[in-house]
Design brief:
The chain has about 150 residues and is mainly α. The protein has a single domain, classed as Helix Hairpins. The chain is about 90% helix and about 0% strand. It has three helices and no strands.
Length: about 150
């Protein structure tokens, strides 16, 4: 029985909200629409600004750092393999064969990672303008929606 009372109370509250909204008049409802449209414009501006000033530069810096570190890793592994080659020429290579194979595997993995990072950087640069334009279009759409609600003198 208690559940039915709560449901009825909720229904009455919802109905009262609808009646209140109908009684508040067109000016109040229009002001709410304008306020909501202004918030949409502000949110679109903030998303665009966040992308241009934070997300894209941060992603680019992160990629550049990863590329630099991976390139250093590739260089060091090549140097290590060159040292293993020198040692192998002068001694019996058996004790170092496992280390050499591990270094070759690590070099291959680092080279693949470096290629992936270079490709990601290329894609980031290639589609930066498109991503920015999407945010700009969202902003323009929000501004157009707001403009339809405002009188011509605002």
């Amino acid at each position: 029985m208690r559940c039915v009372g709560a449901v009825a109370l909720l229904f009455c509250a919802l109905l009262a909200g609808q009646v209140g909204a109908a009684e508040e008049g067109p000016d109040v409802a229009r002001e709410r629409e304008v306020a909501a449209a202004r918030r949409q414009v502000e949110a679109a501006e903030l998303r665009l600004r966040r992308y241009v000033r934070v997300e894209h530069p941060l992603k680019l810096r992160t990629l550049e750092s990863q590329i630099k570190l991976t390139q250093i890793e590739v260089d060091r592994l090549r140097e290590l393999l060159a040292e293993y080659e020198q040692i192998a020429k002068n001694t019996v290579p058996a004790p170092l064969i496992v280390s050499r194979h591990a270094a070759e595997l690590a070099l291959t993995a680092a080279e693949l990672r470096l290629a992936d990072l270079d490709e990601e950087r290329l894609l980031l640069a290639r589609y930066h303008a498109d991503q920015r334009r999407l945010y700009e279009l969202d902003l323009e759409s929000a501004q157009a929606a707001l403009a339809t609600l405002l009188p011509n003198d605002e």
